[in-house]
């Protein structure tokens, strides 16, 4: 047996309670392992107290597995009778059987040795307070991301001189186009019609730049966008339409006009806020240059974004209060934490317990681009922006040498990193204000919809970036932040695209198999780049997704009810074609 391929631990996503009853147990092995059995029982039932241990547990085969690139991920769910569990694994290859315990591997003979003390894996107690719980509504949400300055100007008649006229095409980060909350309110009925039921708003608190990631005042809506009263009204109107609202929180750093930073610059080490930032050299704070010299820490060396000291108790208390006010004043439904991997764990734990006590189903989303398991144990974020999924999907279509197995490994990797509770509310996206737009990547409308088909059928909740409904183009920041071309929306080609997105959104909301956590890759077709996967809901309803990643037309079986199709007719899935159909396996 390939011993180095075998891995299990009794924490994180390898072994955890999914809810008050069910315990999920996962194990990784090499491909040489053909069958896995779990032996499990209660730690005390087997007479461990004051005497010789006799095993009274059950032996059950683990039948579900996901293929990763070099390993197999086996997964099972058990319901421990008394909320606690001890277990070990039996691993079978073609030639041998090994028993896997916390302290290593035993042969059958060693197992039977009289008097051997077995070091089982132990889940001592599934404490309800420690169970990772995520808000149920998120999985039913289809998000729409809005970059406020570029979405809609609702009050063009009030434009001041510094506002540039709305236009299509390229933009710069220095320009301000006057998009505002009035504009978003005006377009709520449009968004409702599109079918989305969640809005993720880029920052709207007072700041100097047009992107507002350099906050000046965390208590005040930026006057370029509107007033606090207007934002409260926007959320209320959105709620009346069944649309939830998530705001962007920039707590890793402030802007250079944030009052405590100004005070530090004025009073130096004597400032009451001296400990609020991460300052190394007090003599050169006013210098205007990037921070590679290390005089203080900032976001990505940007000197107008000094890093807040989220280890400091006063800073923690201050931002707990800020979040509390946002909930009470605006009734927001979610918070996206900017640079979510650089704020302290201590800060996040405190913020979470503070806000969840006020609004128990508030969604806490971290902006983290890499494996984020250390933030997703139930004490900090509910989920993260699923950038690994974005790049994985993109790379498959970009790279003609990638096979459907590569696609399968990539998807399986994304959904074995975290607990099911987190997977269920992952924030799935294909582009954002930080990336080039989806349409720019492969410059092909059929491929664009193939990727959206994956997005809308993955566990978690899909988010489309404003303009995706008309396949808007744009390169990297700032080009991905162009103005929404409202005057072009009525053109027939845009209306067609809008109808296409509406179909996907409706399916996502109506078909529980689209939203479910369960999927597998049945491998019906031999073609190396014909991706096929099946989603299943709790009742066993199925949908099949087929994506032609080749440069030729392919014959596919004609069965099931077609729910969504592009470049498909009568059993022929054309180059870059997509087919989603119901109940056919
Ligand atoms: C501006 C210019 C840039 C210029 C930069 C530096 O637009 O062209 O390079 O200044 O001078 C905000 C604005 C940006 C602005 C930036 C700095 O939106 O327009 O850039 O402030 O003023 C990493 C971080 C992640 C971060 C991304 C951008 O981990 O947190 O980089 N994203 C958030 C927001 C941004 C925002 C900020 C942070 C700052 O979403 O919009 O920028 O508040 C990998 C890594 C990631 C990395 C990612 C992208 O995959 O794993 O860690 O993300 O690449 O680089």
Describe this structure in words.
By secondary structure, the protein is α/β, with parallel strands linked by helices. It folds into 4 domains: 128 residues, Sandwich (Immunoglobulin-like), CATH 2.60.40; 318 residues, Glycosidases (TIM Barrel); 56 residues, Oligo-1,6-glucosidase, Domain 2 (Oligo-1,6-glucosidase, domain 2, Alpha-Beta Complex); 69 residues, Immunoglobulin-like (Sandwich). The chain contains 15 helices and 26 strands. An 8-stranded parallel beta sheet has the order 18-17-16-15-12-11-20-19. Strands 3, 4, 7, 8, 9 and 10 form a 6-stranded antiparallel beta sheet that branches. A hairpin with a 4-residue loop joins strand 5 and strand 6. It is globular. It binds acarbose derived pentasaccharide (ARE). The site of acarbose derived pentasaccharide has 15 residues, from loops.
Architecture blueprint of SSEs:
Elements: E1 15-17, E2 23-29, E3 35-41, E4 58-61, E5 64-67, E6 72-78, E7 85-92, E8 97-101, E9 104-106, H1 108-112, E10 121-123, E11 143-146, H2 148-151, H3 181-186, H4 188-194, E12 198-201, E13 205-207, E14 215-221, H5 228-240, E15 244-249, H6 259-267, H7 313-330, E16 334-337, H8 345-358, E17 363-366, E18 383-384, H9 387-398, H10 404-414, H11 420-423, E19 427-429, H12 438-442, H13 445-457, E20 461-465, H14 492-510, H15 512-515, E21 518-520, E22 530-536, E23 542-548, E24 554-555, E25 561-569, E26 572-582
Helix pairs in contact: 7-8, 9-10, 13-14
